[in-house]
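DM between two lab members

TW: hey, do you still have the Family with sequence similarity 86 member B1 entry open?
JB: yeah, one sec
JB: this one, 248 aa:
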Amino acid sequence: MPGAFSRSSSESWIISLPVSIQPSGDSVTLSESSAIISHGTTGLVTWNAALYLAEWAIENPAAFTHRTVLELGSGAGLTGLAICKMCHPRAYVFSDCHSLVLEQLRGNILLNGLLLESDATAPAQHPGHTTHNTESPRVTVAQLDWDIVTAPQLAAFQPDVIIAADVLYCPETVLSLVRVLQTLSACQKDRQAPDAYIAFTIRNPETCRLFTTELGKAGISWEAAPRHNQKLFPYEEHSEMEILKLML
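TW: and the structure you got?
JB:
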């Protein structure tokens, strides 16, 4: 049964996750801007690839269960909120760089009944190494500018899984993202390399080719993740979307 997706006001969307997946009928409530670009950023609205990645995660919960997830460019937070509610991660780090996006993101996390720990540039220690007595994951919000973040700051996250959705919108962003992914790969030391899943809408094939080309230059191999079966959220039928699994 598809999830209900309705607009409650000019600023809020209500997303009800499928009863067949969540017997309690749990839902994600999202407050976001009604404008595609607002206050100089596109991060205040949910984009199609975020919905697509959320669907994939709900169908593949084992990729996130009992693991620490770092999301790059969380935006309004739809994907992360769905993963936190449906996939039972140990800890989840939402991140973005724009102050208004982070403010809206914190509000959406609290709106969905998740406990929000103190904001940080990076957690002081691996979130999974501490005791957490509730079923909800440990949730933090990090201000993360891909152009200036340092290797020690990225190393402190120690993620098991890295995700991002709809962040391949210009060549400059692609180069910054690959640099961050390469740094995250290099700072793992003796830890197992994290899994990484990047979801995107194919708007400009040249931008997508640039991404895979730069991954190759950085020594990061990739493969297309298998497509999921259920369409839970409404998005444009003609949109061509893909998820790449990276081997960091």
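TW: got it. The longest helix spans residues 171-186. The chain has one domain: 41-247.
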